[in-house]
Write a structure and sequence with these properties.
- A hairpin with a 5-residue loop joins strand 3 (22-28) and strand 4.
- The protein is built from two helices and eight strands.
- Helices cover 7% and strands 26% of the residues.
- By secondary structure, it is mainly beta.
- It is extended and about 65 Å long.
- The longest helix has 5 residues, at 65-69.
- The protein has helices at 65-69, 76-79; strands at 8-12, 19-20, 22-28, 34-40, 42-43, 56-57, 59-60, 91-95.
Length: 125
């Protein structure tokens, strides 16, 4: 939409809670300070996201939660399938209010689905 960014909501199923694959670590800086850090893993986008971005968060399927959270898993092959793009057929997206682009606005209505204004070209003749 030109220079105007349109935010979208991406959901799994009908808006169910879902988990993203993340990593957490605690380490000591050279100065001896304890540092806690975390990250969300990303993967290539599925067909629902690829026209908007070149990557997406790794979404962990519910039947894989225990496997992902098991600290004794050291075999990458065991978690390889989790790191693939989530099935686009199990997701949906919809546009939401551009108010979400303003960090000063914090209301639930901003996350509701909106109908996009489609610009129309004026007639040439």
């Amino acid at each position: 939409m030109g220079s105007v960014k349109q935010p979208y909501c991406f959901e799994v199923g009908e808006g169910e809670v879902f988990a993203l694959a993340g990593l957490w670590d605690e380490w000591k800086s050279p100065e001896g300070q304890t540092i806690e850090s975390c990250t969300i893993l990303t993967t290539t986008p599925n067909s629902l996201i690829e026209d908007m971005h070149d990557r997406m968060p790794v979404i962990v399927p519910p039947d894989k939660y225990d496997l992902w959270l098991d600290p004794d898993v050291t075999d990458f092959a065991a978690i390889r399938d989790i790191l693939k793009p989530y099935d686009a057929n199990l997701m949906r997206r919809y546009p939401v209010s551009r108010k979400l682009n303003n960090s000063k606005i914090d209301d639930a209505e901003s996350a509701s689905s909106v109908i996009l204004d489609t610009p129309t070209q004026e007639r040439l003749f």
